[in-house]
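Lab notebook, bench 4. Still working through the backlog of constructs that have no structural model yet. Next entry is a single chain of 255 residues. Request: give me the structure tokens for it.
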Amino acid sequence: MDVMTFNLRFDNENDGANAWPLRRNLVKQLVEKYNPDVFGTQEGLWSQLAYLNDNLPTYHLHAPNRTFDPTCQYPTLFFHKEKFEVLEGGEFWLSLTPKVYRSKNWDSAFPRMMSYAKVRMDGNSESVWVSVTHLDHMGTVARYQQAKIIADWIKERDAPVILMGDFNDSPGSPVHRVLTSPEAGLEDTWSVLGCTETPDSMTHHGFTGVPQKARMDWILISSHFNVRKTNIIKDNMEGLYPSDHFPYMAELDWD
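Model written out:
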């Protein structure tokens, strides 16, 4: 199973030469080139998600019962239509009131959420939980509390789990530790293969192509999976990048 996490960078008219209308086709082409079985996006406004839905016809946008607000950025899953059967799914806000639309607590700058689905892959009788999230970029306390909410959700799952997203934090941080603790039971796909933390492994680049800040885009997995390969994708077209983050992809074997 090929899994990709991809922070799209929201449609911001102040991005100038890097504005969404100028790079959206690069996003489409990148997904088509790497052809993940499932990918999860962050920062996507509904207009951006609708563009991908319309222009990537082999994928199913999973957002059951979502209230679409044109100003809200949604973590969103896309499944290859011919490879998955979606059994159930939903989403919740990473707050003290997870069912309250756009709710937030602690020092979170924005409402944050997680989207998830239980799916069965073609040719496999077993099911798996796939989830995508985007933790707060400002609130240190909020990020940790949001991670704890996700860890509690993982502990209640009855099948293998994949969690992907932009966690706005570094490997080894409290957020990373709570999600990869023995209680949560997840492993970092990058670390599983013995890959080290170097400046080149940082996944934010601010449209410059120069890695910055941290390796903040992760794919975490339960012990049911083996990692065959990982890839921080740095494709660009004459210096124009699809986003201000590098997409991250992992090739998994499913026991």
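Notes after review: The chain is about 20% helix and 30% strand. The chain has a mean pLDDT of 96. Flag for follow-up if needed.
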